[in-house]
Design a protein that fits this description.
Bound molecules: iron/sulfur cluster
Largest sheet: 11 strands, mixed
CATH architecture of the largest domain: 3-Layer(aba) Sandwich
Helix content: 25-40%
Number of domains: 2
Order of helices and strands: EHEHEHHEEEHEEEHHEEEHHEHHEHHEH
CATH topology of the largest domain: Rossmann fold
CATH class of the largest domain: Alpha Beta
Number of helices: 14
Length: 380
């Protein structure tokens, strides 16, 4: 049995956050169960790219400030760490992301240390998917708290506690893992391998503002007003998925974690506590189009329609700033640097370009006329 605490919170005022998070931790046994004075605690944030907090793409800096203060008051040292996705001019944008997100400022003001995973060295770990190189601070800290953001994902449907661990892979190495595991089910084996390798003790999800629609960067803000806490990331993701209208069993990104029993996912094995006793449904929360397709048609029909309805990434030159993040992040080099035309013979539809473009210039478009008509009829 795993516990998932859901607390209501409608703002990012630090004093409110401290009270609410502390009351949630009390239900998990209190901070004393997890940390002691002098410990170094690593806060693994979601810093997908250089996005401001109002976009709901990154863990909100005031959320991180509140947890930093709680830990500092308990005489812990605090590290704030992550590695962003993609590349600009051959360099991972993590450093810039820390500045744009406001996390660097929070670290300076609160006396925490920024750990840019791209610059801290790696540890080679033997995992179920082979040798992986993960950021060193993950193995140097005494305790790790995962701080995911509640978001949709255009390819993986939902991104939360388990998916947030992908940032444990430093810099441009992430693209190689995407290339080796292009579909959500295979990608899930990489995530499960990271979870098995990294000792994360606690997961606190920032779901005060969430991202709906075509996340994890191109969606819109949804005021979910929730904080979720658990020691079990799979249980947390099962509950959060339910809140946005998905069954975790219907999301192949979690297949590997479920098969390896990395946590609980069945509702009868999850105790929901806090301000709710069952996962509260988030009204009118918009899911990505890919999931709507799966819901509208049965599997056999879906296989037949999938090519017809397939939405492919296409770069909108009116919004493109030529930053080349997509070009450099594409794991199979399918995007022409000069023209920004995508070579669909090479493209493995990983959606990294859509995920990482900070200017919403990579659109998901249906190529075939009949597909456009069918999608209109199905309202997807
Ligand atoms: S589409 Fe344009 S703006 Fe977006 S990542 Fe690619 S080059 Fe940059
Ligand atoms: S062009 Fe295709 S393969 Fe390259 S990043 Fe975009 S979706 Fe992935």
């Amino acid at each position: 049995m795993s516990a998932v605490i859901i607390k209501s919170c409608n703002n990012y005022r630090v004093e409110d956050l401290i009270d609410i998070i502390n009351s949630g931790i009390d239900l998990l046994g209190g901070w004393g169960k997890f940390i002691r004075p002098q410990m170094t605690v690593l806060l693994k944030v979601n810093l997908i790219g250089p996005k401001t907090p109002d976009t709901a793409a990154v863990t909100h800096p005031e959320f991180v400030r509140a947890i930093t203060r709680i830990l500092m008051e308990r005489k812990c040292k605090v590290w704030i760490g992550d590695s962003s996705g993609g590349a600009i001019a051959g360099i991972s944008p993590t450093g810039r992301s820390f500045i744009v997100s406001g996390l660097e400022r929070v670290a300076i003001e609160e006396g925490a240390k920024i750990k840019n995973f791209d610059k801290e060295g790696v540890m080679g770990i033997d995992t179920s998917v082979g040798k992986m190189y993960l950021a060193k601070p993950l193995f140097e800290a005494d305790f790790i708290i995962n701080l995911p953001k509640l978001k949709t994902h255009s390819a993986g449907i939902y991104t939360g506690a388990v998916k947030n661990l992908f940032g444990c892979i430093p810099g441009l190495r992430k693209a190689a893992y995407h290339k080796g595991a292009p579909n959500p089910k295979e990608f899930g084996t990489v995530l499960a391998a990271i979870y098995e390798s990294v000792n994360v003790g606690l997961h606190i999800m920032d779901g005060i503002t969430a991202m709906q629609g075509e996340g994890p960067t191109a969606g819109t803000v949804y005021h979910a007003e929730k904080i979720l806490l658990s020691t079990d990331p799979l249980a947390l993701d099962a509950v959060a998925s339910k809140m946005i209208g998905i069954n975790i069993e219907d999301n192949p990104i979690f297949d590997a974690a479920r098969e390896r029993k990395l946590g609980e996912w069945k509702s009868q094995n999850i105790e929901v506590e806090g301000d709710y006793l069952t996962p509260p449904k988030l009204p009118k929360f918009k899911l990505p189009r890919a999931f709507k397709l799966r819901k509208k048609v049965n599997y056999g029909l879906m296989v037949t329609l999938i090519d017809l309805l397939k939405a492919r990434p296409k770069i909108d030159e009116n919004h493109c700033t030529n930053c080349n993040m997509c070009v450099e992040s594409c794991p199979v080099y399918a995007i022409d640097k000069m023209t920004k035309i995508i070579n669909y013979d090479k493209c493995i539809e990983c959606m990294c370009c859509h995920e990482l473009c900070m200017y919403n210039a990579v659109k998901l478009k249906r190529e075939k006329f009949i597909g456009k008509v069918v999608s209109k009829l199905l309202k997807i």
